[in-house]
Specification:
The structure holds 2 protein chains of 2 kinds.
Chain A (H helix, E strand, L loop, with lengths): L2 H22 L11 H6 L6 H12 L5 H4 L11 H5 L1 H10 L5 H14 L5 H13 L29 E4 L2 H6 L2 H12 L15 H6 L2 H17 L4 E4 L2 H15 L6 E4 H10 L12 E4 L3 H7 L3 H9 L4 E2 L18 H4 L1 H16 L5 E4 L2 H12 L4 E4 H8 L10
Parallel strand pairs in A: 1-2, 2-3, 4-5, 4-6, 6-7
Helix pairs in contact in A: 1-3, 1-7, 10-20, 13-15, 14-16, 18-19
Chain B lengths: L7 H11 L4 E2 L2 H5 L20 E3 L4 H14 L3 E4 L16 E4 L6 E5 L4 E4 L5 H8 L4 E2 L12 H7 L6 H4 L6 E7 L5 E4 L29 E8 L1 E2 L3 E9 L2 H12 L6 E7 L1 H10 L12 E9 L1 H17 L3 E2 L2 H9 L22 E10 L3 H19 L2 E10 L8 E10 L6 H20 L19 H5 L1 H13 L19
Parallel strand pairs in B: 2-4, 3-4
Antiparallel strand pairs in B: 1-2, 5-6, 6-10, 7-11, 8-9, 8-10, 12-14, 12-15, 13-14, 13-17, 16-18, 17-18
The chains are: A alpha/beta, B alpha+beta.
Bound molecules: flavin-adenine dinucleotide and iron/sulfur cluster.
The site of flavin-adenine dinucleotide has 37 residues of chain B, from strand 3, helix 5 and strand 10.
EC number (chain B): 1.1.2.4
GO molecular function (chain B): D-lactate dehydrogenase (cytochrome) activity; D-lactate dehydrogenase (NAD+) activity; FAD binding
Family (chain B): Belongs to the FAD-binding oxidoreductase/transferase type 4 family.
């Protein structure tokens, strides 16, 4: 290692040794059974416990970032381990202590990148994102000039107080979703506009350890929001919601003035206030997939259920949000890009659990989860749809993909 | 990037058995499969690192690994969840770390003869999730219920929180498949039965394979007991002005004779002081309270409801004040989670220091509990004053016998240790503290361990003394079954078996 890399590692250990020791000294491993990756690999290298213990070993001079970097790829940053940890459960309120495995994983990935240890697929992904300003969503042509193509024919304007931020996967791949959302907002009387030039939120780059890159996207997007006078940002993807509520405030500090809203919260409110009525029955047997970033990381699990219960005709077979701490699609945290086979196995397991409920529909509220879940659903005849697509349909609105 | 700690030839043979995916040679893989949650001389971590990790899926693979180990003289250390508190799964001589987590299949659920057959890498919480829709459960319920695994439960001969009602691990295994230290595969049960609960044919071999800490082979499959899921669960917490009244009341409750009794626990004032001081989930109790007794019952409604009324009467008549439903139900429900919070460690000055949790877990008779308690706390106090890195987190005594909870108790003293401060001197001080505690246990006719095993430093030195002539038998068995000393060598002083 170069001296600079050594210094970086020393600083990192200094910063994280005590929190890591909080886990090392407990080591009960209650987190292991809820960890989606551990559930399929059964390889302890990928456990939250190891993610913390490695730092203690680094302090002992036994391991280096080069030894462990690859292990930290195996995390979807779902946050389940943090919730299941007795240290969070029993010391969380009083000591304001929470086991922060997700932050540890992000920090270790950043240290790896800063030390010149890169994962090939992430590197390519981030480079392409920088190049095109949006993520190179698989199987579709991505370019900045197409970022708003999904909105063709909807008559949406640019700018205003409220902005709808459409995630790359939704904008380029699952265009039914943003179209459904736009129509719901129009019908519910919510005034909103689009950005002049929407770049990737930068969240994935940060999750993969490319923090400087992530900031560049953030700086652009925030400048765009300010330029059009936006103060409220509606996100339809939980990943963006995390980026805007956790990463951006870190980048901009007290100067970050935006209210960030997730679509499920807003739509539940519209229904509650009678501004949106769901009249068209949907005669399906469905269960709900709690997206990790909504449920485990942000505690949003009531509004989606409230919405599903408001849909007439739907036979909704719920699995409570605590049981779902151990559920995941496997799509988050860049895992699907670097280890697609593990993502697929996690999605298979999620669909097995859905199949046990005899449903024909799995409803998610996270567009990134929907591709791997849908693939796993095919062999079981379980369709995977986004909650907002269902809402639109039940509100009598057209749900179509863009045809251009 | 790191060079392997094993020869290319051994690596190739292992890959031949397991495929590349099942053989891990990297440093993080090896370093993360050494320690257990028990305090660990972190400054000596490197002495306990295995040379290679294997992740088998089948019995045949395990047998081949063990045969290979015999041929090459390589140690094999089985590891399940790695939560054992006596360092059983910590290699003392490197070698092959055999991690059974990928052996996690449920092979058969037999609702007619009431058994479930599993591989050793399954955890009880997961298993019971699958069993629940069938109205049955596997009732082994340690505080490590969300993490420990069947293989480790057998390897340590574990103790269950509801063992008075349903039995402990060794009472809940009908039969098991074992890869012996020579690589031969046998099934041990009651006589030759797979799903029998009692037989008298031949020697009673099965108990030998509980609590051997991986020194007598590897369990690769177990046929476990299924019990009906209880219709009713009852818990009551009583408070007392002094320890002696609480101790007498504990005796009265434990001797009540109700078959539904799952456990009676006696907490002393150190434990209460600790909870009052630092446990945010602690439900506020009046200052006069110096001791608490918890009682739990499980079973059918027709049994539990009337029995609970009697238990309430006995508790009150023996001097207890009922502490209310909130603590009774809430604290009982949180029993798996209220463990080892490093933030609860305090120095004598009151300053918070991140401490690891150590617990002594002696088995002791009811009659000696008050005296042992005083002696143990005095020892802890001495070490706290002298070294400043320890903290006394109090004691509890928990009914110990399966189905016969009256005569003896699992007695724990929980001690916080600031591991980051350990060096050779502090480590030795800690071992001396443990040794003094152990000497008290033996002086009062107790056993070093009711649940975790006694193979770690500070305990293990006393095993020959505790077992006497039985330790010689232990050595003979070890040598007979493991002629080349490949299974978890160095544990339980069993190297002595090969001295002559
Ligand atoms: C928070 C916490 C609470 C606890 N509460 C309790 C409790 O209430 N009761 C209790 O009894 N214990 C308790 N323990 C201790 C621990 O959970 C038990 O000792 C448990 O039985 C260990 O299981 P494991 O799967 O972690 O085994 P490991 O630690 O992996 O192994 C334990 C021993 O078994 C051997 N072994 C593992 N698998 C096999 C196999 N397949 N064949 C042969 N040998 C094998 C290992 O070599 C080792 O010697 C607690 C621990 C923690 C951390
Ligand atoms: S992350 Fe929490 S639950 Fe997991 S081992 Fe560490 S302290 Fe225990």
């Amino acid at each position: 290692m170069t001296t600079e890399a050594e210094d970086q590692q020393r600083e990192f250990v200094e910063r994280w040794r005590d929190p890591a020791y909080g886990c090392f000294s407990s080591g009960h491993k209650f987190c292991r059974n809820v960890c989606p990756v551990m559930q399929v690999t059964q390889n302890e290298n990928h456990s939250p416990t190891a993610f913390h213990a490695n730092i203690v070993a680094m302090e002992q001079g036994a391991l280096t970032v080069a030894d462990v970097a690859e292990d930290y790829v195996h995390c979807t940053q779902c946050g389940a381990c943090e919730l299941r940890c007795p240290n969070t459960l029993m010391a969380g309120d009083f000591y304001r202590a929470r086991t922060r495995t997700v932050d540890v994983v992000k920090a270790m990935r950043a240290l790896a990148v800063d030390s010149g240890i890169e994962q090939p697929n992430w590197k390519r992904w981030v480079e392409a994102t920088v190049d095109r300003k949006n993520e190179p969503v698989l199987d579709v042509p991505v370019a900045q000039e197409n970022v708003a193509n999904w909105a063709d024919g909807l008559g949406l304007g640019v700018g205003g107080e409220t902005v709808l931020f459409v995630d790359c996967e939704a904008a380029f791949y699952r265009t039914t979703l943003p179209r459904a959302v736009a129509r719901i907002l129009q019908k519910g009387g919510v005034d909103f506009g689009l950005m002049r030039e929407q770049w990737c939120c930068g969240g994935p780059a940060a999750e993969m350890g490319y923090v400087a890159r992530s900031r560049e996207f953030a700086v652009h997007n925030v400048a765009d929001w300010r330029g059009i006078g936006a103060s409220r940002i509606i996100t339809l993807d939980p990943h963006d919601y995390i980026t805007f509520t956790e990463d951006y405030p870190k980048y901009f500090g007290v100067d970050y003035e935006f209210e960030i809203v997730h679509i499920t919260e807003l739509v539940a409110e519209l229904i509650r206030d009678g501004k949106l009525s769901l009249m068209v029955p949907i005669e399906r047997v469905a269960t709900y997939h709690d997206p990790c970033r909504l449920n485990k990381r942000k505690g949003i699990h009531k509004s989606p259920r409230e919405i599903l219960r408001a849909i007439p005709g739907l036979d909704f077979r719920d699995v409570d949000h605590v049981t779902q701490w151990s559920y995941c699609s496997g799509a988050g945290g860049g895992l699907s890009i670097e280890r697609p086979e593990i993502t697929a196995a996690i999605s298979q397991q999620r669909l097995d659990r859905a199949a046990a409920l005899d449903v024909d529909l799995l409803v998610s509220a996270c567009v990134w989860s929907e591709r791997p879940l849908a693939a796993a659903g095919e062999t079981r005849d379980i369709e995977v749809r986004d909650l907002m697509e269902l809402v639109a349909e039940s509100a009598g609105l057209e749900v179509t993909a863009v045809t251009t | 990037m790191t060079t392997m700690a094993i020869s290319d030839a051994l690596y190739d043979e292992l890959v031949g058995i397991l495929g590349e995916d099942g053989v891990l040679t990297g440093k993080p893989a090896r370093w993360n499969r050494t320690r257990t949650p028990a305090p660990f001389p972190v400054h000596r971590w490197k002495e306990y690192v295995p040379d290679v990790v294997v992740l088998p899926r089948t019995t045949e693979q395990v047998a081949e690994i063990v045969r290979l180990a015999n041929r090459t003289g390589t140690p094999v250390v089985p590891r399940a969840a790695g939560t054992g508190l006596t360092d059983g799964a910590t290699p003392l001589r490197g070698g092959i770390l055999l991690d059974v987590k990928r052996m996690n299949e449920i092979r058969e659920i037999d609702l007619v003869d009431r058994t479930v057959t599993v591989q050793p890498g399954i955890n009880m919480l997961k298993l019971n999730e699958v069993l629940q829709p069938h109205g049955v459960m596997f009732p082994d319920n340690p505080a490590s219920y969300p993490c420990s695994m069947v293989g480790g439960r057998i390897g340590t001969s574990g103790w269950s929180l509801i063992g008075a009602r349903y039995g402990h691990t060794r009472d809940l295994v009908c039969s098991m498949e074992v890869v012996l230290p020579t690589g031969d595969v046998i099934r041990v049960g009651e006589g030759g039965g797979r799903k029998l609960r009692k037989a008298s044919t031949g020697y009673t071999i099965k108990p030998l394979f509980f609590g051997h800490e991986g020194t007598l082979g590897v369990v690769t499959e177990a046929t476990l007991e299924l019990v009906p899921r209880p219709q009713a669960e009852f818990a009551a917490f009583f408070g007392y002005r002094d320890y002696d009244t609480a101790w007498r009341s504990t005796g009265a409750l434990a001797k009540s004779g109700f078959a539904t009794l799952a456990g009676v626990v006696l907490f002393d004032e150190w434990k209460l002081a600790y909870l009052r001081r630092d446990d945010e989930a602690y439900i506020e109790q009046p200052d006069w309270l110096k001791s608490v007794v918890a009682v739990a019952m499980y079973g059918n409604k027709a049994e539990v409801v009337p029995a609970a009324r009697e238990i309430m009467r006995i508790g009150r008549e023996s001097g207890g004040s009922y502490l209310g439903d909130e603590i009774s139900q809430g604290d009982w429900a949180a029993r798996h989670d209220r463990y080892a919070i490093p933030l609860h460690g305090r120095l004598r000055t009151g300053e918070v220091a991140p401490m690891s949790w150590h617990c002594e877990d002696a088995a002791l008779n009811y009659s000696v509990l008050p005296r042992v308690r005083e002696e143990w706390h005095a020892i802890a106090d001495h070490y706290i004053r002298r070294y400043g890195i320890f903290d006394d987190w109090g004691m509890f005594a928990y009914t110990n016998g399966a189905y016969k909870p009256w005569g003896d108790y699992l007695v724990e003293i929980d001690i916080g240790i600031w591991e980051q401060k350990l060096d050779d001197e502090m480590w030795e001080a800690w071992l001396n503290c443990k040794r003094e505690i152990t000497e008290v246990t033996l002086r009062y006719g107790g056993s070093i361990s009711a649940c975790h095993g006694a193979s770690r430093a500070g305990d293990v030195e006393y095993v020959p003394q505790e077992l006497g002539g039985a330790f010689d038998v232990m050595k003979k068995i070890k040598r007979a079954l493991d002629p080349n000393n490949v299974m978890n060598p160095g544990k339980y002083l069993l190297d002595q078996a090969y001295e002559d």
